[in-house]
Q: What sequence folds into this?
């Protein structure tokens, strides 16, 4: 593994793609002001409102996740998947930083992180934030510089507000998750299924600005089918077993 100073002084600059609806002018203006003068390679990605290049089957979503996906969830899913496809086809880089437009960022930390070659570090997918407390184990200490840590997540932490992703992880996610049967962050959290460790940097270099959800409370409505409950129970067991096994190996 390269030394820390070699990583952080690299000439690499990771392209940053910020998912944002074209109609979200206030968000775009706020984000643009926040990143102004940071000398980062960034651009807005026009978020999708409809599924593009993915398949959504409501019956399959109910069967796997226990409920239909809301229109906003489908648009978010389609937008992230589109950027994965773009990355796989992009001849200029091996990795992207994907952000949503409602993040508040420590741009000095982001500049440092954008200089890292994640494939060379064996880190194909790295979250910068998650929403819910989750069982975790330490993965790397004082990485990439003292004071930062990487943890592996074993629960359902949710959150796709910001993450680094390599071509390898993007191709794997596209291979498994072109069918939108769960929200996008629920899919990428399925480490036992996709083989991509669910890692996150801590302390978080970004956070989500509070705004009322545009997806709405309807996503919590309705009763789950018995089959969906059984699938969710099996998923919980897989996460728990993986956590217990990895914790035992560290002793």
A:
């Amino acid at each position: 593994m390269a030394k820390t100073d070699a990583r952080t002084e690299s000439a690499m600059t990771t392209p940053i793609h910020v998912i944002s609806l074209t109609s979200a002018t206030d968000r775009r203006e706020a984000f643009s002001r926040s990143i102004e003068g940071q000398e980062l390679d960034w651009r807005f990605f026009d978020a999708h409102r409809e599924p593009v290049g993915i398949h959504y089957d409501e019956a399959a979503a109910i069967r796997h996740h226990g409920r239909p996906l809301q229109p906003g969830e489908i648009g978010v899913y389609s937008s992230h998947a589109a950027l994965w496809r773009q990355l796989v086809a992009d001849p200029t880089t091996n990795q992207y930083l994907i952000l949503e437009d409602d993040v508040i960022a420590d741009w000095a930390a982001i500049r440092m992180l954008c200089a890292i070659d994640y494939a060379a570090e064996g880190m194909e997918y790295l979250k910068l934030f998650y929403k819910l407390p989750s069982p975790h184990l330490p993965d790397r200490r004082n990485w990439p510089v003292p004071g930062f840590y990487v943890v592996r997540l074993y629960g359902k932490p949710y959150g796709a507000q910001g993450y680094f992703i390599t071509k390898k992880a993007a191709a794997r996610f596209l291979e498994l998750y072109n069918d939108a049967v769960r929200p996008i962050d629920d899919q990428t959290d399925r480490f036992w299924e996709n083989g991509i460790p669910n890692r996150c940097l801590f302390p978080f270099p970004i956070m989500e600005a509070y705004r009322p959800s545009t997806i709405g409370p309807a996503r919590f409505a309705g009763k789950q089918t018995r089959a969906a409950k059984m699938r969710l129970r099996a998923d919980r067991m897989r996460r728990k077993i993986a956590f217990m096994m990895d914790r035992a190996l560290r002793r």
